[in-house]
Predict the structure.
Amino acid sequence: MCEEPLSILYARTVDEADALVKAFRDAWKDLAPHFLQYLNENYLDSEANRRRWMFCYREGVSYGSINTSDFVESWHNIVKELFCKDKHQQRLDTGIYVLVHGVIPYFTQKCLHHKVQVGRLSRSK
């Protein structure tokens, strides 16, 4: 049963993911109903939640092939070095402010530059 969530994660189409989610719900409804309720509310029921973690929704997304924690580690290091100024602890409201007004605009701009191929040019360009 541990491989079921991974098979949902790696489903290639929305229809395949829907079928796997249904099978997962059927398998777990009697074993752990409270756990299933939590998963339904936070991950499975709404399409917006599914878009955040299921690979089948990543078509046309520029970062769609990046599925490693190395990418997350790199992102985290950039956030710490550029926006947190080596502060080890911050208040929650300060952290949210930094994310909303600094980090999100920074990475949005980087994604836009990547999409239109603006920025550092290689020798071949």
Summary: Residues 92-116 form the longest helix (25 residues). The CA atoms of residues 117 and 125 lie 11 Å apart. The two ends are 50 Å apart (CA to CA).
